[in-house]
Amino acid sequence: MRTPQARMEWHRERLHASVARGEPEPADNTGGAAGDRALWCAVLVRAFNDALGDGGYMVDAHLRKLAHHWMTRANNPDRRMVCDFAGVDEDYVMRQYAAKVGA
Questions:
Q1: CA quadruple 54, 57, 29, 11: dihedral positive or negative?
Q2: What is the rounded distance in angstroms from the CA atom of residue 75 to the CA atom of residue 85?
């Protein structure tokens, strides 16, 4: 199994390679670099909603606790990787999450 850093590097290389090949970013987010970013944004939104217990679906207490830990753990390489691939600032995401939970 690859380390989080190795996974992040693999995905980063894949994204850069698609951009270097000049692959267009489709408007409908079905593939290419834009599709990759849309996928990672969805992962981030799901984690955010799981941690908050909202999003229109049932989240059990254990999953909510795990998601909250993932969102709040200091120096979380997986969260950093997801934010990088989603093209969003991790600090901004953390400030928004803290504001939502009242921390």
A1: positive
A2: 16
Long-range contact list for 56-61, CB < 8 A, 24+ apart? Answer: none
Cβ atoms within 10 Å, residue 16: 11
End-to-end CA distance of the chain: 35
pLDDT per residue as tens digits for the range 43-94? 998 898 889 887 666 778 888 899 999 999 999 999 999 999 999 999 999 9
pTM of the predicted protein model: 0.65
Distances (CA, A) of 47 to 1, 8, 12, 31, 100: 22, 18, 21, 22, 13
Question: Between 47 and 16, where is the model more confident?
Answer: 47
